[in-house]
């Protein structure tokens, strides 16, 4: 059945469809150079409080509304995605697209993927089409390296994918584990800089040295024997040690593309490296950053770490510190949207 013919399988489409799509942290690749023939494989965590919220509704003429201060290319990206969706589905009636909010772009939250998937899901719902997430991702060119954003959109939680398949097929999901409810993530945001993206990212990846097979094996060992069982059993120490080790190894590999450091922002690095030994946190940088994270076993320990870091003078005044929980469910579709809620809390 083609997408265009799917319209007849749904009796009525909502007048307005609002999708709330979760952000994710990319915790690292396991094998960037395919030492066993399969490249990348990713570990990621879906988080609360940094959602991308997109609504699509029928309109007399096309309109795209984005928040003030949004990146210049966001409106153009939405327009391109709409053109692709229309071409593939045959649904060409005018729509009003509103981006109600989302995390900062190029900061390590997977905002580009969540925007594309949220738009595709809302577009489909508005037209009475049941569009599969993986199909939307393929149409809108998402998931070329990592599949955690795609799986996170559907299911949330801690995710491990197996890297892109033959001919660049969307990475398969190998493991999905509910993130312990008590654990918290301290996000350290430096909004003065962006992580690598687009052409600059591709050039940087191409210039990196081959990744040693023995290090790929060590990363797999850390994930399979520390991170995943630690999460399943809510055993924080091995989880945190595994994440920090993974981040150190993969961060050292990507350091030449980031000025010689595993962190894009020196200010973010200062906070996290101060917190880790004092609170046994799992620390690192999401993707190319600049956002860093410290995972701690409770909200109370997170608050203690933030207060102590501020008192020690290691928090640059320009940084924004945000405490969030893991999110164990994926995107949500609402065909009767009310005023969107942000849900994030500053520390």
3D architecture notes:
This protein is of the alpha+beta class and 347 residues long. It has helices spanning 3-6, 73-89, 111-126, 133-139, 148-155, 198-207, 213-232, 236-254, 266-279, 299-311; strands at 16-31, 40-58, 63-65, 95-101, 158-161, 173-177, 184-189, 282-285, 292-296, 320-325, 332-334, 345-346. It contains ten helices and twelve strands. The strands form two sheets. Strands 1, 2, 3, 4, 5, 6 and 11 form a seven-stranded mixed β-sheet that branches. Strands 8-9-7-10-12 form a five-stranded antiparallel β-sheet. The longest helix is centred in the middle third of the chain and has 20 residues, at 213-232. The chain is globular, with a radius of gyration of 20 Å. It starts with a helix and ends with a strand.
